Amino acid sequence: MTKRRTFLKQTALAGIGVSILGNNLSKAESFLNILQQKAEKFVLPMLPYAYDALEPHIDKMTMEIHHTKHHQAYVDKLNKALEEAKISGLSIEDICKNVSKYPAAVRNNGGGHWNHSLFWGLMKAPGEAIAKNNLTDAIQSAFGSFEDFKTKFSEAAKNRFGSGWSWLVVNKDKKLEIGSTPNQDNPLMDLSDFKGVPILGLDVWEHAYYLKYQNKRADYISAWWNVVNWEEAGRRYDKAMK
Ligand code: MN
Prior knowledge:
The chain contains 10 helices and 5 strands. It has helices at residues 2-26, 32-36, 60-84, 92-97, 104-121, 134-143, 146-159, 210-213, 217-224, 230-241; strands at residues 38-39, 90-91, 164-170, 176-182, 197-203. The strands form 2 sheets. It has a 3-stranded antiparallel sheet, sandwiched between helices. It has a two-stranded antiparallel ribbon with strand order 1-2. Manganese (II) ion (MN) binds next to α3.
C-alpha cells in the first residue's frame, strides 16, 4: 500500500514535470522558470527543436546522443544522489547555489543537469540575423564590438583545459564578464572561482563535438555562433539586470 502510494505520487509528479517542461520547451519559451521549478524528481527536458535542427553546425547524431544519453545520465544520477542524501523539493538552481553543502555526486550531476538544460535553450536553428536587444547593446559597450566579444569568449572556450564550460555572466557589479569553469561546475555554484548569473554557456566537453569535429574544438566553437539563440540570452540578461 505504502509502496503503491509512493509510486503513484512519484509517477504523478514526474508526469507534471514532463508536461510543464515539454510545453515550455516546445514553444521555445524561456528556461528561466524551469530551472527555478521545485521538484522531487528531475526529468529530462524536451528540446525546443528537432535533433537535426542545428545542422550543419551541430550534427543530428551528436545532438541525439548528447541529449538522450549524456544529459539523461546526469538526470538519473542526480536523482539517485538526491535520494541517497535525502534531499528533495528543491529547484536545480537552488541546488547549484548551495552545492557546497551536498555530496560530490550532486555537484557533478546537478551541474550537468542545470548546464545542459540551459544550453539547449540557448541554441536555435541557424539562419536568422541577430536582432538588436539590451544584451547586444551591453555586449558592444562592454567589449568594444561584437566581434571582440566573440573572440574573447571563444578564447575562454578554447583555453579551458580538459572538460568544462565557457560563460558570459552578469557579475555582482551588474557587469558582463567572460570566464570558464571545469567539469560540470557553473558560475551559480557557491564554490565556483568564477561567479555570476549565466547569460550564455558553451559546453566544451569532447562529447559535445567529437563526432563531427574530432579534436578540433576551435572549429566547433566558431560553428556554434551560428546557432546561438540571442532572444533567449537577451531574456536571461534582462532578468539578471532587474
Ligand atoms: Mn555535455
